[in-house]
Design brief:
Elements: H1 2-25, E1 29-32, H2 34-40, H3 42-84, H4 90-151, E2 155-158, E3 177-178, H5 180-186
Parallel strand pairs: 1-2, 1-3
Length: about 200
């Protein structure tokens, strides 16, 4: 009997050692909703407000140019009616035809210029959005990393991430802590909001 007790005790001690080792080796994992953090980040809101202003300015400029084109097209239509008038003198008709041809070429040139203008502005806005978004995501990742390091997490997984087929990448994690709410409370520390850049108006202005 004593011969059996010693091996059993050794096995119990060994098993306890494995359990402690497993406990120490267990990874500390957290999840975070990067989409929620990005939406609530002050820098995102500031960038969105600026983008909306830029788009409105481009739209207003485009509408002003289009108004000029419409006036030019209306002028061409008026000249056509004059040319078609049988009572007009032949030399006057030829003069109007030449003038109308020149205005028609101007209209085509302005139309092409407007189309190119809108494409360039649209491309510029999209490129700026990509640059700003890259900066924003970099800043948020830094904040997530600092929080993870201070809390001793081994991995932080984005629970809002999706694959190229739009399937959620993270379907299940065991014993993972969601740190989204904690970060939402501190993510804007030291980051001015979208209205901070606007100078305060003094009384009487």
């Amino acid at each position: 009997m004593k011969q059996l007790i010693a091996p059993l005790l050794a096995l119990a001690v060994f098993s306890g050692g494995i359990s402690r080792a497993q406990e120490e080796a267990r990874l500390k994992i957290a999840t975070v909703d990067m989409q929620a953090l990005t939406q609530e980040y002050n820098r995102t809101k500031t960038t969105k407000a600026k983008m909306e202003k830029d788009i409105a300015r481009v739209k207003a400029d485009g509408e002003e140019r289009m108004k000029h084109l419409q006036e030019l097209a209306k002028s061409l239509e008026g000249m056509k009616k004059q040319i078609d008038d049988p009572s007009i003198a032949e030399n006057k008709r030829r003069e109007l035809m030449n003038s109308r041809q020149l205005k028609g070429q101007e209209l085509q040139s302005l139309q092409a210029e407007l189309e190119d203008f809108m494409k360039r502005k649209d491309r510029a806005v999209k490129e700026q959005i990509m640059v700003d978004l890259k900066t924003i995501l970099g800043e948020i990742r830094d904040k997530v990393q600092k929080h993870a390091e201070s809390e001793g997490y081994d991995y932080v997984l984005d629970k809002a991430g999706v694959s190229t087929s739009q399937v959620p990448i993270l379907l299940y994690t065991k014993d993972a802590t969601d740190i989204t709410e904690v970060l939402l409370k501190s993510i804007n520390d030291g980051v001015p909001g979208p209205d901070a850049a606007e100078p305060e108006k003094k009384e009487g202005e």
